[in-house]
Amino acid sequence: MIRPIGVRPSLYPPIGPRDHWLGLATAPLQLVEYGDFECPRCRQAHGNILRLRRNLGEQLLFVFRHFPLGKAHPHARQAAEAAEAAGAQGKFWEMHDLMYRYQEQLELEHLLGYARQLDLDVARFSAELANLTYAARVHEDAANGVRSGVNTTPTLYINGRRFNGGYEHDPVLAGLRSAPTDAE
């Protein structure tokens, strides 16, 4: 895909019902992260995003999409599928947070332990991982990321436009505060 110089990639698809999100759908500020649970920079971004959510409250809608970098991070794809399996039982964000907290422990035995800790149906969770139930979902997120211009993690989008200012708290906050909204 060729883009004119200076044009930032847009988010594809727009935020919708298949996304995992926190906040109000009507929030004027939208932050989408394409992330990888085994990526150290994503773990740092996670802490910054938690701070942003505390600072901006109801003004911010946060969305997480998967972009596992399998060659660099051998556990990332299964971790993404584990988040989806937890999400099928209503615990996506709890699993998301646990995997970032214990990022060095993403082997299957650890994922099963996190499922137990979250009071998930572990037999179902384990079977869904073994059957690759959510592999297509994770692949779809990654493919849409490529279509949106993602080539590394974390990659952030503010109000549908790629943010190229990094993932540190202050630059992202400044980007959010200066972002045009739909009303502009």
Main traits of this protein?
single chain; 184 residues; alpha+beta; Glutaredoxin; 5 strands; 13% strand; globular; disordered N terminus
User: Helical residue percent?
Assistant: 40-55%
Which of globular, elongated, flat, extended, rod-shaped describes the shape?
A: globular
The CATH topology comes to Glutaredoxin
CATH superfamily: Glutaredoxin
Spell the H/E element sequence.
EEHEHHHHHEEH
Mean pLDDT: 94
For the biggest β-sheet, the strand order reads 1-3-2-4-5
Model regions low in confidence, pLDDT < 50 over at least 5 residues:
1-5
CATH level 1 name: Alpha Beta
Could you explain how this protein is built, in words?
With 184 residues, the protein is an alpha+beta fold. Strand 2, helix 1 (40-56) and strand 3 (60-66) form a beta-alpha-beta unit. It has helices at residues 40-56, 76-87, 92-101, 108-117, 122-130, 135-147, 169-178; strands spanning 20-22, 29-35, 60-66, 155-158, 161-163. It has a single domain (25-175), classed as Glutaredoxin, CATH 3.40.30. The protein is 44% helix and 13% strand. The chain has a 5-stranded mixed β-sheet. It starts with 19 loop residues before the first strand and ends in a 6-residue tail after the last helix. The chain is built from 7 helices and 5 strands, in the order ββαβαααααββα. Residues 1-5 have low confidence and may be disordered.
Task: Itemize the secondary structure elements and their pairings.
Elements: E1 20-22, E2 29-35, H1 40-56, E3 60-66, H2 76-87, H3 92-101, H4 108-117, H5 122-130, H6 135-147, E4 155-158, E5 161-163, H7 169-178
